[in-house]
Every structure is written in structure tokens, then in C-alpha cells.
Design a protein that fits this description.
single chain, about 200 residues, alpha/beta, about 55% helix
């Protein structure tokens, strides 16, 4: 059956890992909506106009490995506060969510704005310190020259920007299930998410 799963949360909370695992478990399609904003941010860094870029975004633009750099992440957070950019990307996301074979979308406003009627909604979070430690390891493993202090400051800056923007701020949907991964293993977090989605399926 068709089922839309909305998974929101701040950077490095684990929502991407959980979303991919949930999609694989149920055979649903998966969309990391953050990549849409990263793709726009990358093109803006290259000199593009944010709104024009968002309106012309192509699925192939999401395949660039360079979208995972800290500079692009910051640019993504900056363009995400532009209402016209968000509006341009809403249709892309809603069409994906309507797939007949089920869909998992992860981002920051899926359960509140993009898919408010999603059958299953999760909000994945963790402490800023925990998320910064994860992000630091990830970036160091990629060979990037970063410091723990700089990564923590970046996480806090993005949190503040994402939660305080006027359009689609980062907040849990009223009916979202909260999963705090600060003291959870990946296996535990995925199992909890799978249980929430299975319950939604059982409800029909």
C-alpha cells in the first residue's frame, strides 16, 4: 500500500541513516530533501541566483558528492530561509511523497509543511554536543581539516537559523513520535522507527 513517512530533525541527529534503513526495510523510495537545498546552495556558491536555481533544479543535481562539504551545508541553510526557494522545492517533494509504492522523506519541515497528512511522522534529535561529535568524525573521515570546536559552533548556528526562520521553522509536528538518539545505537534507533512505521501500516 502507499504510505508516506515523514522524518524530521536537526543536522547529524541520525535521521538520514534511519530514513534509509526504514525505506530499505519496507521497500519504500527514499528522498533526502536536504540534498535539494544543498544542490541549490552549491549552485549559489557558483554564482547562481537562489530562486532561479531552485526553479530549475534537476534530480541529477542531487548526485554530486561535493554537496556534502561544510561550505555547501552552510549555503544550504542560508538559502533555506528564502521563502521563494522553499516554495519552488515543495512541488518536487510532494510529487515524490505521492509515489504509489510508498515513500520516506527526511528533512526539517516534512511533517509540518510538505506532508502534514503523512501516515507516520518521526522527529529524530540528539544533543548538540552529540551531533557535533558525530559530524566531526564524519568530516575527519573524509579528510577535511576541521576542529571539534568549529563543528559544534556550526551545528549551533544551523540549529538557531533553522528553528528561528519565519518560513517552515524546524519544529516537531504535533503528532510526530520523538526519537532522541543521544544515547541510542543505530540499531536501537532504526528498530524504534521501524516499529512506528509498522504501527502506521497496521492501522491501514
Amino acid at each position: 500500500m502507499r504510505l508516506t513517512v515523514a522524518i524530521d530533525g536537526p543536522a547529524a541527529a541520525g535521521k538520514g541513516t534511519i530514513s534509509k534503513a526504514v525505506a530499505a526495510h519496507f521497500g519504500f523510495a527514499h528522498l533526502d530533501t536536504g540534498l535539494l537545498y544543498r544542490a541549490v546552495g552549491a549552485k549559489v556558491l557558483a554564482g547562481g541566483d537562489p530562486v532561479a536555481v531552485a526553479n530549475a533544479l534537476d534530480p541529477a543535481d542531487l548526485e554530486d558528492e561535493a554537496l556534502r562539504t561544510p561550505a555547501v551545508a552552510q549555503a544550504a541553510s542560508e538559502v533555506a530561509v528564502i521563502a521563494d526557494v522553499r516554495a519552488a522545492l515543495v512541488d518536487f517533494q510532494r510529487k515524490f511523497a505521492a509515489r504509489a509504492d510508498g515513500a520516506v522523506l527526511d528533512g526539517r519541515d516534512i511533517g509540518t509543511v510538505i506532508c502534514p497528512d503523512a501516515a507516520a511522522k518521526l522527529f529524530v534529535t540528539a544533543s548538540a554536543e552529540c551531533r557535533a561529535a558525530r559530524r566531526y568524525k564524519e568530516l575527519r573521515d573524509k579528510g577535511l581539516d576541521v576542529t571539534p570546536e568549529a563543528v559544534l559552533a556550526d551545528v549551533r548556528t544551523r540549529d538557531a537559523r533553522d528553528s528561528s526562520r519565519e518560513t517552515a521553522p524546524l519544529i516537531p509536528a504535533a503528532d510526530a513520535v520523538l526519537i532522541d538518539t543521544s544515547d541510542m545505537t543505530i540499531t536501537q534507533a532504526v528498530a524504534r522507527a521501524v516499529a512506528v512505521v509498522q504501527a502506521a501500516l497496521d492501522r491501514g
